[in-house]
Amino acid sequence: MGRVARTPSPRLPAARRPRLVTALLAVVALTGTTAASCGDDAPAVTVAEVGRAPVSEVIDAPATVTARAAATLTAPADGTLASLRVAPGARVSRGQVLAVIDSPSARERLAQAREALRAAKRAGRGTGTGDLGGSRRGTDRAADEAFAAARAAAGKVGDPQVRAALLLQVSSAQRQYESAARAADRAVAQVQRGVAGLNSAVGALSAAQRLQAQQAYDLAKATVDALTLRAPISGVVQPGGTRAAAPADLAGLLGAAGGSAVPGLDPSAFGAGGQGGPPPGVDDAIPAGGRVTAGTPVLTVVDTGRLGLLAEVDETDVLLVRAGVPASVELDAVTGATYDATVRSVDVLPTSSARGGVTYRVRLDLGAGRMGEAEAAPAPRPGMNAVVRLRVREAADAVAVPASAVFSADGRDAVWVLRNGRADRVPVTVGVQGQDLVQIVDGVRAGDRVVVRGADQVRDGQELP
Length: 465
Known about the structure:
The protein is an alpha+beta fold.
C-alpha cells in the first residue's frame, strides 16, 4: 500500500501541495483532456491520458552545514600567553606549534617532582639482613669435628670397658647437641621469616613511594610539555573556544537526545579539547602576554576540509533514507545556488524536533554547488541553515498519473478510469510517490484515460464527456 492521502485531499503532504496545480496543468496540456464544466467556471472534473514519465520521490528536511571536526586547545596551567605563532583564520597542519604558554608554577611543580623522585630512588636501595643461616652451619661443622676427635681419642684407650664408656658419653653428648641444634634451627627460621616479612614490607613501601613519585613527575612534565600548544588536527584557526548560541529555553539547549548546542558542529566532531568560552558579547581572543588560567580556551582548530550536513528527518519518512541516497541542497545564505550531497549515515536513536515531533538525524557529505548552469557557488560556512531534498526512490520510465488522480476506496488505492464514456473505479498499486506524479505499478496502463481532477465528485458508472 502506498503512502497516498485519502479523498478529498490530494495524496501529497501539505508542504508539497502548492506545486500540484502547476504540475497538473502541465500533464493535462501534454496528454489532452476532457472536462465536465459548469458554465464559464473552471472544470469540476478533468480527464487526462496516462503516459510515461520519470518519477522521483523526494523528502524535504531542514539541515545545518557542519564541519568535519573541531578541537579547542586550552591552557594546561595558570600563566601568560607567551607567544602566538599563527594568526586567526590561518590554515594549519596537525602537530604544528600554534602558541606557547609561560607558567612558572607548572615549572616549579616539575622541579619539586623531579627532586622527590630522586629521593625516593635513593631511599629504596635495599635493606640488607644478617646471615643467621651461615652462622648455624659454621657451628655444626665445628661440633662435628669435635665429636670425631673425641671418638678417635676414645678409640685409642686400651681398656675395652673404659673405651666403651667413653664412646657412650660421646654419642650421648652428640645426641644432646643435635637436639639443641634442631631447636636453634627452628629459632633461626622464625627470625629469618620475620626479617623477610619486614624486608618485604619495607620493599613494597619503597616501591609504592617510587611509583607515586614517578607518577607525580610524569604528570608535572606532561603539564609543562603541554604549555606548547600544537594543532591536534589540520584545519583553520580561530581565537578562543566554540560557543553555543543562546537557546530559546533550557529544552532547546539540552535537547531530548543530548545533542550538541554548538551550531555548525556535528555532535561527534569535538576533539579532546572540548568547548568553552565566555558568554556572548565578550571577545574571547587572548592577546600575546594575556593572562590565562588552567582550562582557558586559547585557540580552536576547525577542520573544514570536508563539509557535511546534519539533517532532521521526520519519523514518517526516515525508513526510506539509507546510506548513499543522493540529495540536492539549498542554503538560506546563497540564494539561487544548488549543492550536491550524499547520505553518509542515519542515526538509530531519535531526537525531538523543534515542533515537538520525533525526528532522526541524517548525516550527509556536502559536495560542490553551482549558480545556474555553470557558475560555481561559494563554499558555505559551518552553521548555515539549509534545506535538503533527499531523492529516496526513482523510476526512470514509469506509468505515471498526477497525485490528485489517486484516492482511497475500501482500504485500497484506486483511480477512476474512463471506459466507454463511463467512470470505472479501478484498484491500483502505487510505486514511487513523487511530489507531483505517482508511479502506478499495476491497475492502469499507458494510454488509459483517468480522472485527474475532481475525483471526489465522480461516482461509479457516471457518464463523463
